[in-house]
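Reviewer 2 asked us to include a model.

Predict the structure of this chain.
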Amino acid sequence: MAKERTEEEKTERKVVSQAKRAKKKAALIKVLAFVTGRKNVPDEIKAAVVFITPGIRVGGGGGPSKLKVFTKLFSDESNVPEMKIFNLFKAGRAEMRKICVNMIKKLPPDQRVWVRLDAAEEAYVVEGYGSDAPKGWTGYQPVEIEDTEII
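Predicted model (structure tokens):
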């Protein structure tokens, strides 16, 4: 039978665990700085070190958000095949459903993109742009109370 630990022992184990994680992260940061600072290190080695280093990004950040990327994609093209989205972003229908809702929910009203899936054509079709829902829209609608959007 397993030994019951006291609260003091649990707290001590947690502190030790956090200290080990901090030490490991500091070591990985040093290795990352060393590898990325050298000129003759192969790119695959740099990529591997960046991959194993938690929460550290080289080159000023992780790039644009998915929402910005998809907003740009749908502003450039009004009919985007599912396979193109899958090949470019590895996003399936479930993830795209969330992204389409977020293009309505999280963008300012004047920048909204109203996108729906046309299952017959296997493509995402832009129904409209802006604050007003397109005519006949059956998808997500922002919730308004007394002319103020709350969600």
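The mean pLDDT is 81. Residues 7-37 form the longest helix (31 residues). We have added this to the supplementary material.
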